[in-house]
Amino acid sequence: MTLRKGGGNTGVTAILPGSDIFKQKMLASGQVINGFGKTTCLVQINELGALETPILMTNTLAVGTCWTALTRYMLDRNPEIGLTTGTVNPVVMECNDGDLNDIRSLPVKESDALTVLALAEGNPPLLEGNVGAGTGMRCLGFKGGIGSASRLLELGGKK
């Protein structure tokens, strides 16, 4: 979801790595390369080697907002969390878009993150270009972002 209103130039991106990831945790690890790594739950991922939520990406000052939204999302889908199982560890990653976004206006709301998660459940086409998290990023003075083609992965012989 891309948010461009007022001085806002930001967004939220969701990655859903499975339909029931809390019950069928995914093997995972994390590494911060050339950045500050303002992420949530990366320590637990590295300790346990497992991912148990979708991943949200957003701007630096919206990490807490997206964490709360992702927690609500997981609690709604898994009523056993915190009752008969442990708690959940929502993964939110950040990108600083403060130069091209009015980051102080806190434009990302919980409803934006929940909307992105709902849209991702419908398996929409991958949007390319200046969209979602990273919309307002700069890299070395140029317009930058997360990008849809920044990494090529091979899994089980498939790209």
Automatic annotation (TrEMBL):
Write the signal peptide boundaries: none
Q: Name one GO molecular function term.
A: aminopeptidase activity
Q: Pfam families, per this entry?
A: Peptidase_S58
Which InterPro entries would you find in this protein's record?
ArgJ-like_dom_sf, Peptidase_S58_DmpA
Q: What is the top-level taxon of the source organism?
A: Bacteria
Give the family, as the similarity comment puts it.
Belongs to the peptidase S58 family.
State the protein's name: D-aminopeptidase
